[in-house]
Amino acid sequence: MALFMDLGFSKGICEDSIQNFDVNGKTYGFQFDVRLNYYRGLFLSCIDEFGVNVDGEKVDQMDLTFSINGKDFSAFNLNENISEFWNILHRAKVQVRRPEGLTSGKHEIELFLILRSPYLPLPGGEGDHNYVPIQSGGTVTVTI
Amino acid sequence: MSMIKRGVSLYSYQQEYYLRQMNFEDCIRAVADMGADGVEIISEAMIENFPDPSQEWVDNWFALLKKYNCVPTCYDAFMDGRIRGEEMISDDEAVQQMERDIRLAKRLGFKTIRVLCAVPLRIIERTLPLAEKLDIILGIEVHSPFRLATPWLDEYIDFIKRTGTKHFGIIPDFGIFVKRPVRILVRKHLRAGATPEIVDYVCQCYENNVPSEEMLAKVNTMNPNSEDLFWANEAYHYTYCDPKLLAQYIPYIVHIHGKMYEMTLEDGQWDEYSIPNREIIQVLKDNGWEGYICTEYEGQRHYHDMEDFDVDSVEQVKHHHEMLARYIGE
Q: Which residues of B touch A82 (CB under 8 A)?
């Protein structure tokens, strides 16, 4: 059984922020804000897992962008960034490239976001997951 | 007159701060409102643009302290050993992290830095020259599951005795004095479906120092469910040391974390449910300890399973300070 630390402060996706976005006047995808569900901020390198499902379908990592402090990062190099700090009060923005955006109707958006508490070894933990994992994702259903 | 002073770690207000019900100034005002003046912070929680706050932010920090007649006490540093996913940091990087924190603590006017219990002595030794130069005192936190009177702690104490350094000491966290299980945590497990008889039995065993193997053997005969077993395991992750053990460490205690889970009212007086503060503070007073006890409220996270949880951290901390003032003898 995976044991996550979940402080319960945040459900991950900020529901009020979900919206389609345009590029050159044309819908290019949708975006939402995310808050870090922890009591202290972390460097982006502490992101162990990041992914999005829309209506049960996995979004390709190529189509995800994670933005914080006015900078955009691809999903691939988040965990290499040991100098970009995510403050607990700041919203990160996730953009999902999806040509039609979210179409009219009901959608289920799942955010997979697991961070690692880099100072806190997991009691009895071994291997890749020997530091306490922080659950910062969640699922929301939205009607467009 | 006792020289024990009262402060608050702003960690105590983490929930209200996160939910933007209290801003940074509100947190500092709350400390002053209860007659305390010591402010302790978790740097990665509240410092804007950590680890390089703007001068404007730093100026505002000092202005707020002045406005509310507060002083900076302890800067809580971490050691992000696994800042990279695949591997531990090197010793050089660990020293760099510590030096970064010492410089930032100095910039913010702190006198003391909390060092995590997992930081090895060899890193402290390499960091001490900068601490001495900037006159910052490093304090290794004695935090559960670590305990007093153990080889782990002896190694640090021996180093202090051997070198005579005035810039390294210890910071006991009152979470090492949990005499009876945290009641709000017990209630959380009951809400999650634990069996009352088993939960009670585990609590009694913890309070009476029954070895965990013996307790678990008996629990296994009581037809436990998974929540019962989880609790039986978790209860024994807490730590109880005899408060009298503190006496031998008095010269080395540079700061104290007044861990608090739940304040309860009995006969018109507030007390912490699990931690024998009266006994602990008596030992500190009898031995003439001087310094700050900063409240570290950590009860908020045991309510989050409830849909409409409502915690008033300011009230809890306020009651903790009524209790501290009473035992200190203000």
A: 83-84
Residue A128: per-residue pLDDT: 53
Residues of chain B with pLDDT below 50 are none
* ipTM for the predicted complex: 0.89
Nearest alpha carbon to residue A30 among A54, A50, A47: A54
CB contact under 8 A, B44 and A42: yes
Q: Which of A10, A41, A79 sits opposite B85 (nearest CB)?
A: A79
pLDDT(A2) > 50:
no
Domains by residue range for chain A, with CATH: 13-143 (2.60.40)
Question: In this structure, what are the phi and psi dihedrals at residue B312, rounded to the nearest 5 degrees?
Answer: -110, 90
Q: Which residue of B has its CA nearest to A132?
A: B82
Q: Chain B: give the shortest CA distance to residue A94, in Å.
A: 20
CA gap B8, B296 in Å, rounded: 7
In this prediction, residue A1 carries a pLDDT of 34
Cβ contact, residue pair B50, A87, below 8 Å: yes
Query: Which chain A residues are within 8 Å of B309, Cβ to Cβ?
Result: 8
- pLDDT of amino acid B165: 98
Sequence ranges of chain B with CATH classification 3.20.20.150: 4-180+240-328
B82 and A116 in contact by Cβ < 8 A? Answer: yes
B203-222 confidence digits (pLDDT tens): 999 999 999 999 999 999 99
Q: Provide the token pair at A59.
A: 């979004």
Residues B85, A10: C-beta atoms closer than 8 Å: no
Among chain A, residues having any CB pair with chain B shorter than 8 Å are: 6-10, 39-43, 45-46, 48, 79, 82, 85, 87-89, 116, 118-119, 121, 123, 128, 131
Q: Report the pLDDT value the prediction gives residue B102, as an integer from 0 to 100.
A: 98
Residue of chain B whose Cα is closest to the Cα of A80: B84
Positive/negative CA dihedral, A82, A88, A89, A90: positive
The CATH number that domain B4-180+240-328 falls under is 3.20.20.150
Q: Can you tell me which residue has the tokens 């053990």?
A: B245
**Which of B98, B162, B164, B91 minimizes the C-alpha distance to B134?**
B98
The answer to whether A118 and B93 are in contact (CB under 8 A) is no
Say what the pTM is: 0.94
pLDDT of residue A77: 87
Q: Greater confidence, A39 or B308?
A: A39
